[in-house]
């Protein structure tokens, strides 16, 4: 049987799309490797399978992917060139768009919100009262590094969805951390 064909019971057929058929291929032909595809009939070598484009996933006919039909990279994921399986956007990011080609295509979680798991198509929710969440936060109540969010500090307040601590306004105070509101100044004192 010549290269580019598969032969069985005296019949010779062109190798189907998604596969390659080296010389002497019989009833069993070979799927293109994961991350590649073949849209044409008659391919003879694996090296001639085409690399999947960035922003798309093309499944391997052998089932080596989690999608059944391939196509555009789904929301919440990115698909680098040559991928057969969409990769989830990392924690702290999300994506509501198709065709993301790189992890940098995923959107950083917006200020005052958190993105707590991989593969999100929208933020998980607002930051908890008493905490602040800068862009890219992964928890509703961050443990406490200023650049990554944390508990609201003394003399500030942080209502739900706060992106950075707010100073208590004149006439109010707060002598505790993790507070969502400031208290009115006590009679006989000034704030």
From TrEMBL:
Q: Looking at the record's lineage, which domain of life comes first?
A: Eukaryota
Q: Which InterPro entries match?
A: Growth_fac_rcpt_cys_sf
What is the protein named? WBC30 protein
UniProt source species = Loxia leucoptera
């Amino acid at each position: 049987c010549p290269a580019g064909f598969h032969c069985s019971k005296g019949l010779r057929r062109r190798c189907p799309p998604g596969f390659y058929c080296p010389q002497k291929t019989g009833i069993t032909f070979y799927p293109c490797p994961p991350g590649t595809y073949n849209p044409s009939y008659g391919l003879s070598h694996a090296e001639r399978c085409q690399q999947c484009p960035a922003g798309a996933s093309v499944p391997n006919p052998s089932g080596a992917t989690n999608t059944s039909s391939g196509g555009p990279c789904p929301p919440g994921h990115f698909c680098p060139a040559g991928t057969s399986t969409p990769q989830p956007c990392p924690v702290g990011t999300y994506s509501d768009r198709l065709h993301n080609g790189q992890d940098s295509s995923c959107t950083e979680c917006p200020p005052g919100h958190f993105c707590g798991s991989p593969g999100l198509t929208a933020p998980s929710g607002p930051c908890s009262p008493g905490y602040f969440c800068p862009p890219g936060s992964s928890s509703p109540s961050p443990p406490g590094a200023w650049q990554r969010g944390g508990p609201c500090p003394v003399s500030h307040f942080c209502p739900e969805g706060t992106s950075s601590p707010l100073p208590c306004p004149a006439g109010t105070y707060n002598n505790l951390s993790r507070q969502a509101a400031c208290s009115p100044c006590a009679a006989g004192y000034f704030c």
